[in-house]
Specification:
By secondary structure, the chain is α/β, with parallel strands linked by helices. It contains 12 helices and 13 strands. The strands form 3 sheets. It has a 7-stranded mixed β-sheet, sandwiched between helices. The chain has a 4-stranded antiparallel β-sheet with strand order 9-10-13-12. The chain has a two-stranded parallel ribbon with strand order 1-11. Helix 4 packs across helix 5, helix 4 crosses helix 8 and helix 10 runs parallel beside helix 12. It is globular, with a radius of gyration of 21 Å.
């Protein structure tokens, strides 16, 4: 008997997870691995977060919370927008979510009907297009490159054939680390407003910047959906907690979707996350480490033949054009792991056009590991 498979062949794997599995299998077999494949801060969550979690475990029932999250946590997030960006975001417009992944599911379902067309940058985060496809929304990958600093721009969007119902932007971006200036983001937001195109602003790498602070769509794009996460800057990856700033016209839809799809975000994670806003010094020290790691790779990777690197103004990635070395980045990464123990992600995860000749290096790990990886790659390429 043959059963129907509604999405057979339509959803690509999230290749970085496959690479991580291969790296873990190598480690389990006794091989050493240097993890430059996954975008995950090393070490534990901040100390006050751990303390808050322990206290919650001993004193809290950990039942369901409000569908949109603990009111006290939403207040803390609202205060974050006042303090960081100087804008007012009412707690009623904040939805706490099961990671940013849950936020994207809610955002796309609330904003776009089946058959809508949503533009995303290529290279870009692969889950955008995979989630959109799974929801019956047409993902429109739009090629970007060095001329636009790997970001969507108004002229690029105006050249896309056919109508657009939505645009996803990310600043800082994964995988290139490129950023939109405040003026560029405002121009995109104004274009979306004029053309009744829903803007989704991925801001999960805010706080991890090296050439100036990132601009938020909050305060400049009243109809935008803004997604953030506790996983990256706040170093709470496995706690699976994020949030979304919801425009007034979608607030009830998002709440109803959350009630039915997720009931509520993880309670323990929410109680712990309230403390993370008191850990800014500790978190900024991590960003200083990422800067050191980035600078090591920017200095050493060209000596290993990786000479064409995106700017990495934020996030914790270097994106490399390796067309002179390979036109099969997945196989190149397999060889690299087998022969050096260095795990990196092939560009096919991020770019359906030219990913076969690009790689992404994550430098979120320990500085000693980053330096050792660079040393091994230089020896490997000689």
């Amino acid at each position: 008997m043959a059963f129907h498979n509604a999405l057979k062949g339509q959803i690509d794997p999230f290749i970085v997870m496959d690479v991580m599995r291969a790296a873990n299998e190598r480690a389990a077999a006794g091989g050493d691995v240097l993890h430059l494949e996954v975008g995950q801060p090393s070490g534990q969550a901040p100390a006050r977060v751990l303390e808050a979690a322990r206290a919650a475990l001993s004193s809290h029932g950990l039942g369901y919370t409000d569908a949109l999250g603990l009111p006290s946590l939403r207040e803390r997030i609202s205060g974050h927008y006042r303090q960081t960006y100087g804008v007012t975001v009412e707690p009623e417009r904040i939805a706490v979510t099961t990671g940013s992944s849950g936020a994207f599911v809610l955002a796309f379902l609330a904003a776009f009907p089946k058959g809508a067309r949503v533009a995303v940058a290529a290279p870009g985060y692969p889950a955008y297009r995979n989630i959109l496809t799974a929801l019956g929304i047409e993902c429109v990958p739009v090629q970007v490159g060095e001329q636009s600093r790997w970001q969507l721009t108004v002229p690029i969007l105006e050249a896309v054939p056919g109508r657009l119902d939505g645009v996803v932007v990310a600043s800082p971006s994964n995988p290139t680390g490129s950023m939109l200036s405040a003026a560029e983001l405002a121009e995109l937001a104004a274009w979306c407003e004029t053309h009744q195109v829903r803007l989704v602003s991925d801001e999960i790498y805010h706080g991890i910047t090296y050439e100036g602070a990132a601009a938020s769509a909050a305060g400049i794009a009243p109809h935008a959906l803004i997604v953030n996460s506790f996983s990256k800057y706040y170093a709470m990856t496995g706690w699976r907690l994020g949030w979304m700033v919801v425009p007034a016209d979608l607030a009830r839809e998002v709440e109803c979707l959350q009630q039915n799809l997720f009931i509520s975000p993880p309670t323990l994670s929410q109680l712990a996350a309230e403390a993370v806003f008191d850990c800014i010094d500790e978190l900024d020290a991590r960003v200083a480490t990422y800067r050191v790691n980035r600078d090591i790779l920017r200095e050493e990777l060209p000596k290993a033949g990786f000479t064409r690197l995106a700017p990495s103004d934020g996030a914790f990635y270097l994106y490399a054009d390796v067309a002179e070395l390979t036109n099969d980045s997945p196989e190149f990464c397999k060889r690299m792991l087998a022969e050096t123990g260095v795990a990196v992600t092939p560009g096919t995860d991020f770019d359906p056009f030219h990913g076969s000749r690009t790689l992404r290096f994550s430098f979120a790990g320990a500085t000693a590991d980053i330096a050792l990886a660079a040393k091994r790659l230089k020896s490997w390429r000689r």
